[in-house]
Amino acid sequence: xxxxxxxxxxxxxxxxxxxxxxxxxxxxxxxxxxxxxxxxxxxxxxxxxxxxxxxxxxxxxxxxxxxxxxxxxxxxxxxxxxxxxxxxxxxxxxxxxxxxxxxxxxxxxxxxxxxxxxxxx
Length: 121
Known about the structure:
Layout (H helix, E strand, L loop, with lengths): L4 E2 L2 E2 L10 H11 L6 H11 L6 H10 L8 E5 L2 E6 L9 H18 L9
Antiparallel strand pairs: 1-2, 3-4
């Protein structure tokens, strides 16, 4: 297809008019930014850099972040094991950072505050 003209001047949309799907994909691909995992990496680094200095905040973290995956289960009917749901926490992209944050909170409570952390385990 030829260029679109209005008053003998090329239209600004001329570059978008194409003959085939291949040209459309290349035109569209050049304008769309590529998705990267840079955002996830920055959030991981931010979670790793959190320092636990407040006893109340450490208690909240120890209560909110589970000690083990809450989704892992055995499916039992009439005493027979039908299946097993594996721990899905490993699929969480922030799993290691959250476990590390919980560990830092528990260490702060035990070492700095002298609290018994047995209720959180």
